[in-house]
Design brief:
The protein is α/β, with parallel strands linked by helices and about 260 residues long. The protein has one domain: Vaccinia Virus protein VP39 (Rossmann fold, 3-Layer(aba) Sandwich), CATH 3.40.50.150. The chain contains 9 helices and 13 strands. Strands 5-4-3-10-11-13-12 form a 7-stranded mixed β-sheet, sandwiched between helices. It has a 4-stranded mixed β-sheet with strand order 6-9-7-8. Strands 1-2 form a two-stranded antiparallel sheet. The N terminus is likely disordered.
């Protein structure tokens, strides 16, 4: 299965086959970065990418988005993902209501291990991290880790790629958010940045959305994507009348009508 892969890709495949205990330092090369919110485990393989570079410099990725999410959380839980290395998690956990929780997920084996260690070194206990992708139906799908066999890993841009084969992908479980999040939890915010799988993820969260009417935050830099998401939300949840309230750092914030 791993014949012909780079050492880093072999490590990724290895992590796909095992659970990563919270608190166990990853055995791939990594460094610990720190900013105003906390500390972060960052794989060396990602060191020259945008988010790790900012973290290594003590800065915050998408600081205005984080500030807005902290403001919107209220007393309910937040669902946020993909987690990447956990760069949003310390800041969001700091603003949690005492009874609230964070539910997050990261399908890529290496980044899941890094995010798990980020939780540990920050002592975050009200965060549940799942080693899965989210979609509209249970499945197992290939996750693209690099653009070609033997190429550099895609870091935060790793994405589900149905139909892809070869040494640049690893199979990961896909679940619905409706099955992942306990039904009794009150959800205030649903934040999705899942590399083009946002629509499928929304369709797998229909019960969650109808029951909670959460604020929904989606990566949508282009106007056409904002309109597509708005049409989808209006079609499937017409009684909630979701609308774009603002766009911050390429993230569109959708509010239900009753939240004004």
């Amino acid at each position: 299965m791993t014949e012909g892969l780079t050492p880093m890709a072999k490590t990724a495949f290895s992590y796909a086959q095992q659970a990563i205990p919270l608190g166990k330092a990853p055995d791939f090369p990594h460094f610990i970065a720190e900013n105003q919110y906390g500390r972060y485990c960052v794989p060396d393989a990602f060191a020259d990418r945008e988010v790790p570079e900012l973290l290594a410099a003590g800065q915050v990725y998408e600081p205005r988005t984080i500030a807005r999410l902290r403001h919107l959380m209220g007393s309910g839980d937040i669902v946020t993902g993909g987690a990447f290395v956990g760069d949003f998690l310390p800041a969001l956990a700091e603003s949690l209501h005492p009874q609230a929780q964070i539910h997050t997920f990261e399908p890529a084996p290496m980044t899941h291990a890094a995010a798990a260690h980020t939780l540990h070194i920050n002592g975050l206990r009200d965060v549940t991290l799942h080693n899965v992708a989210v979609g509209d139906a249970p499945a197992t799908l290939p996750l693209q880790l690099s653009r070609f066999d033997g190429g550099p890993q895609m870091a935060a841009a790793a994405k589900l790629a149905p139909g892809e084969t070869g040494g640049h992908v690893v199979n990961v479980p896909v679940v619905r958010l409706d099955d992942l999040i306990p039904e009794e939890r009150i959800i205030s915010v649903l934040h999705l940045d899942v590399e083009g799988f946002e629509l499928r993820a929304l369709m797998g969260a229909q019960r969650l959305i109808r029951r909670n009417a959460p604020v929904i935050v989606l990566e949508a830099a282009k106007r056409r994507m904002q309109l597509l998401y708005k049409r989808t939300l209006r079609q499937h949840f017409p009684h909630l009348q979701y609308h774009v309230s603002e766009v911050i750092e390429n993230n569109a914030i959708f509010l239900p009508f009753r939240r004004g």
